[in-house]
Hints:
The protein is of the alpha+beta class. It has a single domain, classed as Hypothetical upf0131 protein ytfp (Roll), CATH 3.10.490. The protein has 5 helices and 7 strands; from the N terminus they run βββαββαββααα. The strands form 2 sheets. It has a 5-stranded mixed barrel with strand order 1-3-2-4-5. It has a two-stranded antiparallel sheet with strand order 6-7. A hairpin with an 8-residue loop joins strand 4 and strand 5. Helix 3 packs across helix 4. The chain is globular, with a radius of gyration of 18 Å. GO terms for molecular function: gamma-glutamylcyclotransferase activity; glutathione specific gamma-glutamylcyclotransferase activity; transferase activity.
Amino acid sequence: VWIFGYGSLVWRPGFEFTSSKVGFIRGYSRRFWQGDTFHRGSERMPGRVVTLLEDCGACTWGVAYEVRGEQIAASLKYLNMREAVLGGYDTKLVKFHPQEKDGGEPILALVYIATPQNPSYLGPASEEDIAAQIIVSSGCAGHNIEYLLRLAHFMRYFCPQAEDKHLFSIEEALISILPCLYYTEDSLEET
């Protein structure tokens, strides 16, 4: 069984796997439209994490993990709790295209997608509003800023040829907001 990750699974799968490949799926765009009140946020301040939006002309880059034997039941049990129960995600089968030149035929992979019907779904917002929400959110897995920056790093390092305007626009908005939140003694004395 292959499992496709496009959010935190790209750097922290949390389950044992036999092999992994960087690549993409077609027909979906990654969007920071899913709320998170556990891993990267709280009930009081939900974080924003990614889900997939059907988009026939787009592709989303990530990592596919191959699980075999006893790894299958253990990984699906773990992911069902992490993604479906806590996150509000549904599962789908998609065609994964490996990045490597001799990757061969596409691989059928399982993917978790949050839909607008789940109670944690936040939907669209401006990049600035999403960045502002990310800055103030933190959960049991860490700060929401870390989630955004790790995902942007993954895209730059492992998929430099790919463009993810939504992701990079939010990162840019976050970076432009952060200096406004940082005050030194000198800046306080000037006011």
